[in-house]
């Protein structure tokens, strides 16, 4: 690794954070709680999702600790069920779904398209309040004794056989769903209607395209989950419903409706992450993203295909063989746009001037781990191997590779990348590079052994397991400890940097997006005047000319 | 195009352009022009209706499968619904959609009196719909046809025990006990679907009440038709849902 | 011709006011449709045996066809989609498409369950 860096900071002895910015505009708690500013709402979201991430993470720690030994030594089996359920619910609905869109997307999309705000600021604030209500309901559920259905609420287990808090969790997810619908709706409208002069569709940064695709999924998929959960709640309360075979219902219908949302939901989670990677890879290779149009359309293609593959979660549940065949084939199709992205990022790197700042390290982590996660998805999309591997730790490893190795890496990459824009200060580079490497190592130690455990036949969702699986489980738990350190470090040094970080200036990365062409932290309405987009996205030559012009005029 | 006139909100837009920084009071700060704001909110409303389509979509899917599985139960259970009330309600809702559309027209033509009149008519027709619906719900309660809460399948095990319906549908044969049980499924879906629809009506009527007050104050007749128009979209959407619920629930097989 | 196109394009961005005559025609058509669908439900329209185990009943088909026609009228005229931008039209189509994907793809499972197992 060379010492080369693209970071260019202003002279620290004279540099100051701009006095007037969105953080200092107004003071007091109410100015935050009643704000319409997308950047403040993004900040509120960032704080809230970090809070829930650490709750979910602590539960993950408990799961790994329990699995250290083959017996149920730390907690009773039904407590374990509650712990992994709450881990899933919190991580999926309160962290992963809103992670990149509601924080980075909320902050950056209006700036990237050159708008003053999202199209519907009040709806944006409402979405955060809905998120908080959902979060409170989940915390209430945990305090009241938890729920143990798994995050999938499988019927008739959730409607007939359990006496835990299915109703409050179901309603919490219902509310969280509307929070995400409103975020998605806001993004689509903003991207269509709020672009600045000259900002054509094919000049949009790929981050915007990716969030646009994810938003389509949010708007069209989430309501189906909402009505499904309403039906589950009704079934529990009035004891009649369409899912319980005892009343003539069909549990597989629940699976269809649930996965109609929950499969696209994984694209809701991963697509914005892919958008982050496009930005980061381009910036730190100093090259336009290879095949811009292909990458843009592959996001939309993933969104469209996403609606036609859901039954691959149900191959062993008794759907017809013919349907399984169709869904299996369609599942293979999703591999195409995902591969387009991976290959295009690789080609972007080719002959680029690559530097290895923290966001780039996380992006490399993403590309490697997401590729493994995606490839193992092909195993699971094939009906034959799926029957062997499903409901084992192979599944757990697969979706953690995609969601944690992919999405969480992308989230951290994005947070580091836009941190200077968000706060006006740099994070400390050396320690954050260290944290990125620790995360990568810890991640592989944690989840790679689970692929092996899965192929050996260790089922998921059990507190105890045969003793011959212990060695690999110890590995996994040890890795989780390292991973935990990797996640704790950023929160410590990022908080530290709020006060002591170096002043970042407008554009420390020499990036081309519109968000970098204004002060950091930005003004309340983002730009002193509405920008005019007169160049293609990722046009680094334009940036150079721009800087020459500035030097000339100052000189 | 002969049957419609095209105008732009030029009066309002001119204000925005000629005196820089001076906007009509209803223009939000982050929009450049009134047209942009109108376009944006209209598109947002359409997207919201998409989510509503998918929300009801889950129910329609469930309905379709259950109807195919338990067709005899669905036929006999649907005979319990009063086709007169159902048709009347459909007509009421279609008329309310018409008055709503006329309300939008009055707002566009800046006729305040007409707007208040048509909004009030829509409000009244909406209430009439809910009134008829509650008569029907009450009937179901009296006849023990509320699954889970107040239920008996006597009418389906022995149709003759229900002379009112039996005289209209003498061909209805007694159902086997396992099929008779499935009539609960029909009534569950009936209540879930019409209930969800009624909930949308209640929300709509509440907003209408608010709008009537604002319309009397002249809020929508100064060129700012957006709010009325977008609410109209919602109201027509609720109408469309009923257009499908009516044949699916009431008219399964009447011959 | 090109002039005409331009005019149409131009008009897309303007606000259309649909005349009450159109609304009145539509509401009458909707009421007639309602009468028609009630009337049709009292007649046995028969069925079509497409293949063994696959039968199409005409009554629900007719009922849904009438409902779809009514929906189209409401969407085009009451909801002004006929006079709206292509984006609005695309949005409507997108909603219908996803709804049909939900129903249609779910049905692939239910219809083919009885086809026997391998």
Summarize the structure.
By secondary structure, chain B is mainly α. Chain B has nine helices and three strands; from the N terminus they run βαααααββαααα. Chain C has about 120 residues and is mainly α.
Q: What this model shows, in words?
A:
The complex is a heterotrimer of chains A (555), B (255) and C (118). Chain A contains 16 helices and no strands. Chain A has 555 residues and is mainly alpha-helical. The longest helix of chain A has 36 residues, at 77-112. Chain A starts with 28 loop residues before the first helix and ends with a helix. Chain B has 255 residues and is mostly helical. Chain B has a single domain (51-251), classed as Four Helix Bundle (Hemerythrin (Met), subunit A), CATH 1.20.120. Chain B has a two-stranded antiparallel sheet with strand order 2-3. In chain B, strand 2 and strand 3 (150-151) form a beta hairpin. In chain B, helix 2 runs parallel beside helix 9. Chain C folds into two domains: 18-82; 84-118. Chain C is 69% helix and 11% strand. Chain C has a two-stranded antiparallel sheet with strand order 2-3. Chains in contact: A-B, A-C, B-C. At the A-B interface, helix 6, helix 7 and helix 8 of A face helix 2 and helix 8 of B. Strand 1 (4-7) of chain B pairs antiparallel with strand 1 (15-18) of chain C.
């Amino acid at each position: 690794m060379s010492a080369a860096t693209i970071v260019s900071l202003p002279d620290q002895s004279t540099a100051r954070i701009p006095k007037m910015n969105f953080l200092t505009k107004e003071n007091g708690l109410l100015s935050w709680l009643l704000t319409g500013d997308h950047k403040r709402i993004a900040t509120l979201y960032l704080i809230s999702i970090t809070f829930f991430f650490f709750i979910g993470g602590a539960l993950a720690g408990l799961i790994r600790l329990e699995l250290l030994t083959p017996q149920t030594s730390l907690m009773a089996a039904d407590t374990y069920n509650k712990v992994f359920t709450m881990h899933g619910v919190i991580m999926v609905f309160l962290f992963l779904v809103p992670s990149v869109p509601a924080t980075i997307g909320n902050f950056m999309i209006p700036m990237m398209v050159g708008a003053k705000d999202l199209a519907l600021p009040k709806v944006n604030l409402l979405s955060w309040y809905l998120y908080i209500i959902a979060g409170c309901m989940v915390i209430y559920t945990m305090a009241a004794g938890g729920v143990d259905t798994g995050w999938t609420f499988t019927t008739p287990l959730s409607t007939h056989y359990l006496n835990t808090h299915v109703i409050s969790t179901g309603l919490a997810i219902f509310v969280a769903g509307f929070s995400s619908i409103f975020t998605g709706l806001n993004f689509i409208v903003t991207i269509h209607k709020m672009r600045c002069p000259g900002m054509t569709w094919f000049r949009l940064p790929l981050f915007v395209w990716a969030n646009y695709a994810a938003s389509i999924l949010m708007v069209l998929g989430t309501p189906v989950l909402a009505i499904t959960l309403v039906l589950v709640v009704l079934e529990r309360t009035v004891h009649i419903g369409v899912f319980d075979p005892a009343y003539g219902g069909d549990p597989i219908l629940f699976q269809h409706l649930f996965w109609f949302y929950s499969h696209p939901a994984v694209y809701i989670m991963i697509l914005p992450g892919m958008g982050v990677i496009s930005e980061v890879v381009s910036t730190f290779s100093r090259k336009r993203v290879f095949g811009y149009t292909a990458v843009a359309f592959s996001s939309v293609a993933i969104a469209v295909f996403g609606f036609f593959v859901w039954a691959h979660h149900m191959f062993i549940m008794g759907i017809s063989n013919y349907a399984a065949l169709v869904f299996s084939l369609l599942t293979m199709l999703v591999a195409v746009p995902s591969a387009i992205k991976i290959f295009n990022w690789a080609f972007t790197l080719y002959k680029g001037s690559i530097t290895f700042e923290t966001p780039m390290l996380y992006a490399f982590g993403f590309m490697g781990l997401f590729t493994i996660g995606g490839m193992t998805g092909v195993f699971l999309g094939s009906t034959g191997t799926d029957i062997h591997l499903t409901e084992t730790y192979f599944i757990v490893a697969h979706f953690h590779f995609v969601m944690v190795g992919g999405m969480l890496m992308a989230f951290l990459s994005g947070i580091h990348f836009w941190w200077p824009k968000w706060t006006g200060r740099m994070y400390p580079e050396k320690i954050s590079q260290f944290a990125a490497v620790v995360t990568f190592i810890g991640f592989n130690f944690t989840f790679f052994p689970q692929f092996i455990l899965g192929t050996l036949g260790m089922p998921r969702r059990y507190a105890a397991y045969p003793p011959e699986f212990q060695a690999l489980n110890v590995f996994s738990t040890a890795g989780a400890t390292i991973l935990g350190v990797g996640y704790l470090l950023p929160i410590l040094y990022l908080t530290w940097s709020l006060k002591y970080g170096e002043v970042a200036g407008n554009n420390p990365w020499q990036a081309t997006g519109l968000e970098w062409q204004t002060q950091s932290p930005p003004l309340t309405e983002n730009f002193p005047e509405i920008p005019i987009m007169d160049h293609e996205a990722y046009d680094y030559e334009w940036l150079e000319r721009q800087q020459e012009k500035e030097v000339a005029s100052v000189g | 195009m002969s049957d419609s006139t095209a105008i732009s909100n030029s009066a309002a837009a001119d204000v925005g352009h000629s005196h820089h920084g001076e906007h009509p009071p209803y223009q939000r700060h982050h929009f450049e022009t009134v047209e942009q704001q109108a376009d944006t909110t209209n598109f947002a409303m359409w997207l919201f209706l998409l989510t509503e389509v998918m929300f009801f979509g889950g129910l329609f899917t469930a309905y379709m499968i259950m109807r195919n599985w338990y067709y005899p139960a669905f036929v006999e259970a649907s005979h319990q619904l009063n086709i007169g009330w159902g048709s009347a309600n459909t007509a009421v809702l279609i008329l309310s959609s018409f008055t709503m559309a006329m309300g939008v027209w009055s707002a566009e033509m800046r006729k305040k009196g007409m707007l208040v009149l048509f909004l009030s008519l829509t409000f009244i027709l909406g209430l009439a719909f809910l009134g008829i619906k509650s008569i029907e719900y009450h009937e179901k309660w009296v006849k023990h046809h509320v699954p889970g809460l107040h239920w008996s399948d006597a009418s389906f095990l022995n149709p003759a025990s229900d002379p009112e319906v039996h005289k209209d549908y003498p061909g209805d044969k007694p159902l086997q006990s396992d099929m008779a049980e499935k009539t609960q499924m029909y009534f569950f879906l009936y209540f879930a679907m019409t209930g969800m629809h009624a909930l949308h009506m209640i929300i709509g009527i509440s907003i209408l009440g608010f709008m009537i007050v604002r319309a009397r104050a002249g809020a929508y007749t100064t060129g700012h038709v957006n709010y009325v128009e977008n609410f109209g979209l919602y109201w027509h959407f609720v109408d469309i849902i009923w257009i499908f619920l009516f044949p699916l629930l009431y008219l399964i097989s009447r011959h | 011709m090109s002039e005409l196109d331009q005019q149409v394009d131009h008009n897309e961005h303007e606000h259309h006011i649909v005349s009450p005559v159109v609304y009145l025609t539509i509401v009458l058509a909707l009421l007639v449709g309602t009468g028609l669908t009630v009337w049709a439900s009292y007649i046995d329209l028969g069925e079509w045996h497409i293949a063994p185990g696959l039968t199409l009943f005409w009554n629900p088909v007719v009922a849904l066809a009438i409902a779809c026609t009514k929906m189209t009228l409401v969407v085009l005229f009451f909801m002004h989609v006929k006079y709206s931008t292509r984006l609005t039209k695309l949005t409507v189509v997108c909603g219908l498409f996803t709804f049909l994907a939900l129903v249609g793809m779910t049905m692939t499972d239910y219809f083919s369950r009885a086809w026997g197992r391998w």
